[in-house]
Amino acid sequence: MAWLWLRESKPLWYGIVGSIVLILYGIIPTLQSFPSFGRVYAAYGGVFVILAVLWGWLVDKNAPDLYDWIGAAICIVGVSIMLRAPRLR
Hints:
Elements: H1 2-8, H2 12-27, H3 37-58, H4 66-84
Helix pairs in contact: 1-2, 3-4
């Protein structure tokens, strides 16, 4: 919504609501208390990258190039390592 306010000339309240949502999106994860949350959140980041590439391709009609796919693959490999690696505890 903040994007719509900034780039599409939507009313100011779009920017305010969008900004509040973005702030909450950043704060809420810091309140998590289970021990592996950081790893799960990092994995979510990797999945987010893949979904962003797909969104740009399918919705915005912005075809990813070779480097987009390489970067997305690196993210998935990184996520797989983080989630599947044996842990020494």
